[in-house]
Specification:
The complex is a heterodimer of chains A (112) and B (111).
Chain A lengths: L3 E4 L2 E4 L5 E7 L5 E8 L3 E10 L2 E4 L6 E3 L9 E3 L8 E8 L7 E2 L3 E5 L1
Chain B lengths: L3 E3 L4 E4 L4 E7 L4 E9 L6 E6 L4 E3 L2 E6 L4 E6 L8 E9 L6 E3 L3 E6 L1
Parallel strand pairs in B: 2-11
Antiparallel strand pairs in B: 1-3, 3-8, 4-5, 4-9, 6-7, 7-8, 9-10, 9-11
Classes of the chains: A mainly beta (112), B mainly beta (111).
């Protein structure tokens, strides 16, 4: 069955380290998204991509970057992790830009 | 950023009850509308899309009022397994088609 996966599921890192979170989908969706979820804020968009080599900034993109070298993957990189980036990160994909999005299981990141 | 507003609850209802959630959105350019369900510490899962004519899926009915910028979800005959957080979600064309999430309404169905 087609699916969307994220790895690692849990990560503890130190302030200042570079961290990459993986997202992989097998639906062949062109559209992929990264969100973070924090108490009191709901889900907020970090970056998104509409296809290979396309990337766009979302609402809370500072300190994060993405690259899209193929349809299946959209890795999220924290260039220099900060304690404010402790959060749960969800990746999502969609067939249509305005259509429903399907979410991965999430990565719980703690920056100490 | 345009807002999607929901009553956070919690809504505590007995099994078999009918419960309704409401949501308002401020961006009149919003194109598509959804209800997602999120269980504790899990990913959001699509419950249903919301269409202008209203739509029903089993015990769940969703309504959209574009003029009032208002979305609703009705759950009939509540089950214990309906306990979760329900997220009102709007897709805004002028935000790159990204989803704009409400903060969610918590539902607890009790025996």
């Amino acid at each position: 069955d087609a699916e969307i996966t994220q790895s690692p599921r849990h990560k503890i890192t130190e302030t200042g380290r570079q961290v990459t979170l993986a997202c992989h989908q097998t639906w062949n969706h062109n559209n992929m998204f990264w969100y973070r979820q924090d108490l009191g804020h709901g889900l907020r968009l970090i970056h998104y991509s509409y296809g290979v080599h396309d990337t766009n900034k979302g609402e809370v993109s500072d300190g994060y970057s993405v690259s899209r070298s193929n349809t299946e993957d959209l890795p999220l990189t924290l260039e220099s992790a900060a304690s404010s980036q402790t959060s749960v990160y969800f990746c999502a994909s969609s067939l249509d830009r305005a259509g429903e999005q399907y979410f991965g299981p999430g990565t719980r990141l703690t920056v100490t | 950023r345009k807002e999607v507003e929901q009553d956070p609850g919690p809504f505590n209802v007995p099994e078999g009850a009918t419960v309704a959630f409401n949501c308002t959105y401020s961006n009149s350019a919003s194109q598509s509308f959804f209800w997602y369900r999120q269980d504790c510490r899990k990913e959001p899962k699509l419950l249903m899309s919301v269409y202008s004519s209203g739509n029903e899926d089993g015990r769940f009915t969703a309504q959209l009022n574009r003029a009032s910028q208002y979305i609703s979800l009705l759950i009939r005959d509540s089950k214990l397994s309906d306990s979760a957080t329900y997220l009102c979600v709007v897709n805004e064309r002028n935000s790159g088609y990204a989803l704009n999430f409400g903060k969610g309404t918590s539902l607890l169905v009790t025996p």
